[in-house]
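queue> holo job accepted (geranylgeranyl diphosphate)
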Amino acid sequence: MNVTELHKMKEAGQKGLVVLIDPDKCGDGYLDELLTIAAVNKPTFFFVGGSLMTTQRLNETVQFLKKNTDVPVILFPGSGNQIDENADAILLLSLISGRNPELLIGEHVKAAPALKASGLGIWSTGYILVDGGAPTTASYISGSQPVPRNKPEIAAVTAMAAEMIGMQCIYLDAGSGAQNEVSPKMINSVSKSVDLPIIVGGGMKTRDQLEAAWNAGATLVVVGNAIEKEPALLESLSESGSQL
Ligand SMILES: CC(C)=CCC/C(C)=C/CC/C(C)=C/CC/C(C)=C/COP(=O)(O)OP(=O)(O)O
Ligand SMILES: O=P(O)(O)OC[C@@H](O)CO
Ligand SMILES: [Mg+2]
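queue> job finished
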């Protein structure tokens, strides 16, 4: 699936809900339960990945999803080896809030041949970690400082640079299980500074938070932990897709 699908969504003013699936946390029938609920309350996409993957379940998770749902499956890789050609696309993340060359370009160089051969849709993504109130796995593993929560202008100029370099979307991430989600003020500031679709995630738990993010300019809002803890939450978050 090409990134133009995401650009079309933004141009049409459509808003999407994404469920993040961490293959490490898919035990005990979790995916069966999730897909039963998702059959009625369809998310726009499934993202699959983790900043730290301690099991080898990526391929079986992608395979299971491709077999049992028609919701597109987009890889959200914590490293260059989280590639599976059975998915529909991959967020080719470049960690632009950090200054670690491996996560800006190094991993990408190593993964380039496999990515090209995979036939996956490539969504070049400027990935911005934002302080969500506590250190997250992503910031610890990447050894990078997140953008301070109350500095929307830093996120905005970072996104502007990414757009001029040629990246195709921006991901503002307060990190897995963040105490504070990315503020609508920061989303709005980024939205006014670039024409790119904006993906927002980290610490989202309520429909009100999703709406605040969409209204501030997000095209996609990602929910991981809250649905992992309580899959039925997908029903109230999606409101049967009325807004999607
Ligand atoms: C070259 C390729 C294919 C990929 C680049 C990979 C890069 C540079 C990633 C950026 C840095 C990074 C660690 C991103 C993490 C993204 C991610 C999958 C976050 C979601 O996972 P969490 O839910 O935070 O993970 P845990 O549950 O493991 O805490
Ligand atoms: O798990 P949560 O807190 O919903 O975060 C989702 C994702 O944006 C984390 O990278
Ligand atoms: Mg996680």
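queue> The longest strand covers residues 121-129.
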